[in-house]
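User: Fold this; tokens only.

Assistant: Input:
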Amino acid sequence: MKVSTLLLLGTLSIQNTTLAFTGSSSLTPPNREVSRKSNIVVSSAKAPDNDVASVEFPPPLSNVDRIKRASKFWSSAIPIVLSYYSKGAELEVKRAFTGQSLTKEEEEIIWNEQHSKGATKLADTIRSLKGFYVKTAQIIASRQDLFPAQYTEALSDFTDNVDPLPSSLIKAVICKELLNRGEKFEDVFCEFDDTPLGAASVAQVHRAVLTEKYGGKEVAVKVQRPSIESKLMGDIANLKALAKTFRENDALPLDYYTVFCELEKQLQDEFDFVAEAVAMDRIYDCVTKDENGIPCESPIVLPRPVSGLVSKRVLVMDYLKGVPLSRAAEEMLKRGINPNSPESQLFGRKLLRSLTDVFGRCILETGFFHADPHPGNIFVLEDGRIGLIDFGQVKQISGRARETLAKVMLALNERKSDTNPEDLEKIGNLALELGVELNSNSQKEGPAAVAMWLFDGSVETLPGGYDKGELSPNSPVKELKSFPQDLVLVGRSSILIKGLSNRLGIPWSLSREWAPIARRVLEGNQGSAKRTKQQENKVRIRDVYVIFKSWAKGKASRAITRLPSSLRTRVAAIVLKVQKFKEAKSKKR
């Protein structure tokens, strides 16, 4: 897989995300009182007025509909692509006849006009077709570092705004999927918000409250759009066919065919909510127990599925009260919070630490991790904690890849310097062992430079004279010929964290943070079986202390959010100074 695939699958919108510290009063959950003020309709959980059978379900696409849909896509997409070839040829002809070349400024004006026309046409096409094309628009809109600004701006409206299905149809799907014989909708839900919390291309989510029979708690209900699978898979088949046609053309900046092949695999997993519920539990078990199986406090909050209320197309889970990270800047402005305040900076560091810990443990300890991390799936909760949602895309990497990754982390962390030949050779060989392939004319430091670029954001200068910027002509990324598909989504997670650290202005080394986990993984806890009874008693006391310390730390963090604003700022400033002092001391070692 080409590195361009890895970059596109990063799906980041960090450039437009400003982090805000959120105290208990800064984020308001969509409860009943607030819902009325924001025009959210809350029903008393009555089922549709008529029988479920009377609600008309959208039929799967017929062969004729598929042909029409494909024709509309091709009739719009091909002219956009060909217009770039035409414009390039036009400029070459002018240059050949006149013998004069345009200045960079003149070329930029011409191509900006071309981008504007193409972006407008593409947005109109996606708005008409919807389906998987909306997902493609979301990816393009979130990668300002890879696509022209005209395209990211024209497609930005597709990020969170997808037309929701009517609540009557949603309730009909729930009744069909979840209810037992003789059971009514109101037997399961005593309250159900008709307006969804969010509507995406595959599913939409509603807030609800369960009846006492099912636990009586507030939940989120994820409902798959009827007959959406055939529609989306047909869409991605069209995109693959178009991308394959232009795969060998150097004029295109990315290997789009490989991108859509990988997205096709991910998309297939998103249609099974039972598998998603299993994934939620697996990741929860990983992050709520330490390496010895002792319960510990998770760095982030994960929703849990509600037993007995999960099917292939409906998933009932815990409701996390907060807003996605992608809307943190908006909430911050509403509450008058200064983005440069100690509270905001402290929260940013907490966010970085939490995501680093969770992804490090999942990737290195079990190889099973959340494969769709982006600011829309990361939540800032009302008590200041971090939440992670949407487990429709997960990844399991092989044990061998996991072990080699752990070795890479240790080699990076234990290197004597960024230029020591022995260290560079060791790091480079491990990178090649992972399956990374470089161009034949790349420098010998290339493999090591790629590993440092991906897993050590604190590096000032990369070996071999390579630049840190991924879009620079001299970036080590440009040397990559292919990247193993098994590790594409690992790279996606590391790029997310790297983007956050850059946005926060915090030099962050994943290899340094993940090294202790990597060491435990490689050691395999072999010494645990040899402990004497006396040692086991000491371990138990230590574990109790660790659990208590973790619990107290979480309590203290949440207590800070409940302090008066002025006092909270002072406390946050002190804590921030302590953290920076520890970081500076750690770098000197």
